[in-house]
Amino acid sequence: MLQADKLSYTISEFVKATGIARTQVFAHIKQGRLKACKSGRRVLIRSADAQSFLNSLPAREVA
């Protein structure tokens, strides 16, 4: 899960923390559902934006 002490995540860190596939992360960013910013060539996801995105996902029961 996400770490409370981190200010931001790289794409790789976000993928590891959430289990969401890398291509899906980029798709969510492109579609505006997940906010990201750039620092040079690096794409970063702020912790608050990551948490907001995860909270916005619909809850589903696993059968």
Give start-end ranges of low-pLDDT stretches: none
Number of strands: 3
What is the count of structural domains?
A: 1
Strand order of the largest sheet: 1-3-2
Helix content range: 40-55%
Give the count of helical stretches.
3
Biggest sheet features: 3 strands, antiparallel
* Helix/strand/pairing category: alpha+beta
Percent in strands = 15-25%
SSE arrangement, N to C: EHHEEH
Q: Distance N terminus to C terminus?
A: 22 Å
Shape: globular
Compact overview of the structure:
The chain has helices spanning about 10-20, 20-30, 45-55, and strands at about 10, 35-40, 40-45. With about 60 residues, the chain is an alpha+beta fold.
Structure explained in plain terms:
The chain has 63 residues and is of the alpha+beta class. The protein has one domain (8-56). It is 43% helix and 17% strand. The protein has helices at residues 11-18, 22-30, 47-56, and strands at 8-10, 37-39, 42-46. Strands 1-3-2 form a 3-stranded antiparallel sheet. β2 (37-39) and β3 form a beta hairpin. The protein starts with 7 loop residues before the first strand and ends in a 7-residue tail after the last helix.
